Amino acid sequence: MTASSTMSKASAACWSCGAATSGAHFCAKCGKIQPLPKGTDYFAFFGLPQKLRVDSADLEKRFHSLSWKLHPDNFVRTSENERELSLARSSELNDAFRALSTPLGRVEYLLAHNRMRKEGQKKQQAPPELLEEVFELNESLDELREARQAGGDAASTAKVRMKLQAAEKNFTERLEEVDAQLDSISAEWDAVIDADNNEATRKALMDRMNEILNRRSYIRNLVNKVAAELAA
Amino acid sequence: MGRTVGIDLGTTYSLVAYVDKETKQPKCIPGPYGSALCPSVVSLDADGSIIVGEPARRRLLTQPERTIYSVKRLMGRGPADVAGELKIFPFRIDPGSESVIRVRLGDRVFTPPEISAFILRELKSWAEQYFGETVDKAVITVPAYFNDAQRQATKDAGRLAGLEVLRLVNEPTAAALAYGLHEAQRGLVAVYDFGGGTFDISVLKLISTDQGDIYQVLSTSGDTHLGGDDIDNELQRVAREEMRAQFGVDLSADPSAVQELRKALIAAKHELSQAKEITIRFPLSDGRIYTRIMKRQEFERLIAPVVERTMGPVKQALADAHMAPNRMEEVVLVGGSTRVPLVRQVVEEYFGRKPHAELNPDEVVALGAAVQANILETGVAGMLLLDVTPLSLGIETMGGVVAKIIPRNSTIPASAQEMFTTGVDKQTGIDIHVLQGERELAKDCRSLARFQLKVPPGPAGLARVEVKFLIDASGILQVAARDLRSGLQNAIEVQPSYGLGDTEIEKMLEESIEYAEQDFAERQRIEAVTEAETILRATEKTLAHPEVEIDTTERRAIEAAKAALQEAIAGRDYKLIRARVDELNSVTTPLAERIMNHALATALEGKNLDNE
Questions:
Q1: Using CB atoms, which residue from A73, A91, A95 is nearest to B384?
Q2: Least C-beta-crowded within 10 Å: which of A54, A79, B399, B567?
């Protein structure tokens, strides 16, 4: 396996028996639950490589199997230390499952974990190729609000509503395009992990993912805004 | 070590249940009146003693100003929250109430957790009587939509009652556990839980795995102030309006009459679940009688808005689970209000399938709590519950905006880490405001707690404090902070926005534990004395038996054991009384056997004579 897990890097001694541990959930020697190493990688938590295309049934199975072992229910009658470790481990398990259970969540997590997620000023800025459409959309939104403020009824706003509905549909399609882009870059990423796992290549891919995410959140906000305005 | 029980601390009724070790089935424990339902009513007697349950409910009519019901509505809430309730409920809130409400009963004031603790202590004693053993641990159920403060208040109540609360379990989830055990369901299940004061809806997925069954909650929603109480209030509004119009009578000034009316209307509501038409008859204090015929149709028209209010959360929960109503493979009804035919009809129409209601809707939550208690007591027994947090957790940021850090419907335990730093030079503290809710602005969310992170003074941005927010398996928030530069744990004192502080609880606890121990010992003593008196009377009778021979040694031994027991009774130690009862029992056994044989022989002789 080429995808290095940060978990296996962390080595420490078992708090209970002193045997060497490698970041596993339980001590191999005495079986006691172990504290979380700093900066645990969610993929490694499930024993998975850092790959973005995940078989969701398999992930769920791993989640359930770990839940049986780590859940605080198992530790009610143990020492306070073990109860706390179980709480930390099982909350991490649930956080990890929540983060990794969708394709988008996995990309977001990957970037956050590698400190490659940069939202910055770009958040408010329209991607250049969308500028014209966004301008038009904002005009329609203003028009609808004005019509409403002037006491306009459904009939008088029907035209602008239709325009907005068309825009909503258009941007929803754009969102689907972005998701398709995410899917294909995820495949690219996995191929790199399987091949040479070159750091420069990985970094370049993550930069591109970051851009796609920024574009996605921009479009997502637009869709939400239009939907909210139409529902108002 | 004592036993663990499951408790449903309800708005109207509370129940205690356990899992029978032999049958492996959960069972509710009956109280002294034979019913497993303990009315959630508490009354303060003139001599200062506390009365709980059925006798307290009767006092609602005779001593309303010393009696309280539906206290669950006040749990974890501040005075401002309950202003609306006060118009409808006869709660006497002490004017001195600040973050925690204080309720007046007669000449004393109590916090809602203290009142709930009286109910819990009553149930604890039911279970102790039943087992003849101490009970010191419990799983208590709460509405799934309870927020952190309401959960914390429930946990405090448990502590005050001398119970270690091993877990708070959401009511609909508990019901699903009981149903799952009942008929091994699989797949997607919606639990519609409409109780006396709260409404919950949960969507669950039941999964079989190699290790056993997992009950995974996908989403939950609800309204912690929507229940059968609202139906009663609707009926009451109509009746009082009509009394005013018809007789010019206003009941407001007469709390006893209001309670009488409430009782009559609840009875009417229950009848309307069976009958198509009923007559309400209510005598006024001046002898005139308010008579009113009500058809089920009219009743349904009156309560339709209340029932309709449940549908908002239902739709929300399904949307959050990304499910259409027809995807549900089972729909389960829980809570007394689901007995109302209109409720059943609305649920059936929405989901397009007949809902399950085989298990007693009053008991099913307590039964589920017992199942979870058993899991915790014996180790995971092939069943695992994965529940969710009902509300998003957030922290206040610039401009009063809330940054969500743990989204609603996250599986619990769940956690989030946030980094904080200073904004100006020489700043020595960072203020943190934790909130719960879905709204954008802090002022529209529920404030959970405020605290300050202490940092050494330095240039702005130098301090780095990592705060870990963790929601435990009971849905209660824990906060821990660590100074990343020093690596030291940062001491934080969380001041709950609506709740009791630790010192306050400690104080109440000291008092309540004393009471609880006294109560338990006193009950044990009374029982032991009763038993001792019975055996003493029996011994007198045997010693006086005219026909059976008793030699001096035996007579002396018995007399000595008798005297020892009498001495123990005077000494009030129930354990000693029990021991002496056993001793007396053993020395009188041979004599009792002889008397028995004698009686038998006489009877046989008699029989022989008859046969001749």
A1: A73
A2: B399
Residue B266 has pLDDT above 70, yes or no: yes
Beta partners for residue B384, in sequence order: B214
Residue B72 annotated as catalytic: yes
Q: Which of A125-134, B128-137, B306-315, B410-419 shows the lowest mean pLDDT across its residues? A: A125-134
Task: Determine, for residues A74 and B379 on separate chains, whether the beta-carbon distance falls below 8 Å.
Answer: yes
What is the tens place of the pLDDT at every residue in A1-57? Answer: 333 333 444 458 888 888 888 778 888 888 889 888 877 899 999 999 999 999 999
Tokens of B388: 């969710």
Amino acid at B308: E
DSSP B138: E
How far apart CA B34 and CA A187 sit, in angstroms, is: 66
Beta-bridged to residue B292, according to DSSP, are: B280
Which of A64, A73, A94 comes nearest B414 by C-beta?
Answer: A94
Does the active-site annotation cover B65?
A: no
Across chain A, what does the average pLDDT equal? 84
With a CB cutoff of 8 Å and minimum separation 6, the contacts of B415 are: A88, A91, A92, A95, B406, B468, B469, B470, B471
Q: Which residue of B has its CA nearest to A76?
A: B376
Instruction: Give residue A217's Cα distance to chain centre.
Output: 12
The average pLDDT across B507-515 equals 65
CA atoms within 13 A on the CB side of B273: 14
How many angstroms separate the CA atoms of B452 and B430, rounded?
A: 5
| Pick from B118, B94, B95, B119: nearest CA to B105 | B94
DSSP class of B4: E
pTM of the predicted structure, to 2 decimals: 0.81
Q: Check: CB of residue A86 under 8 Å from CB of residue A72.
A: yes
Fill in the DSSP letter of residue B79: T
Task: Give the best residue of A71, A76, A100 to mutate against chain B (max B CB count within 10 A).
Answer: A76
Both tokens of B409, joined, read 């419907």
**Tens digit of each residue's pLDDT (9 = 90 or more) over B91-116:** 788 876 667 788 989 888 899 999 99
Contacts with A65 from chain B: Cβ below 8 Å: 209-211
Average pLDDT, whole number, for chain B?
Answer: 87
Distance from CA of B553 to the nearest CA of A (A): 53
Among B26, B62, B24, B25, smallest CA distance to B41 is for B62
What pLDDT sits at residue B609?
Answer: 47
Cα–Cα distance, B514 to B516 (Å, whole number): 5
Cβ neighbours of residue A182 closer than 8 Å, sequence gap 6 or more: A103, A104, A107, A209, A212, A216
User: How far is Cα of residue B20 from the mean position of the Cα atoms in its chain?
Assistant: 20
- Tell me what the mean pLDDT of segment B134-147 comes to: 94
Distance of alpha carbon B110 from alpha carbon B118, whole angstroms: 11
Q: Which of chain A's residues have a Cβ under 8 Å away from the Cβ of B416?
A: 95
**DSSP conformation letters of B366-415:** HHHHHHHHHHHHHS--SEEEE-B-SS-EEEE-GGGBEEEEE-TT-BSSEE
Q: Is B394 exposed, middle or buried (0-12, 13-18, 19+ CB in 10 A)?
A: buried
Q: Do B414 and A73 touch (CB under 8 A)?
A: no
The owner of tokens 């998003």 is B392
Q: What DSSP designation does B322 have? A: T
Question: Is B8 one of the annotated active-site residues of the chain?
Answer: yes
Residue B390 has pLDDT above 70, yes or no: yes
In angstroms, the CA B540 to CA B534 distance is 10
Distance separating alpha carbons of residues B135 and B165, to the nearest angstrom: 11
Residue A4: the pLDDT is: 33
Distance from CA of B166 to the nearest CA of A (A): 8
Q: Is B375 on the interface with A (CB under 8 A)?
A: yes
Report CA-CA distances (Å) from A40 to A23, A89, B486: 9, 10, 21
> Measured between CB atoms, which of B207, B380, B413 is closest to A87?
B413
- Six token digits for residue B379: 């180790």
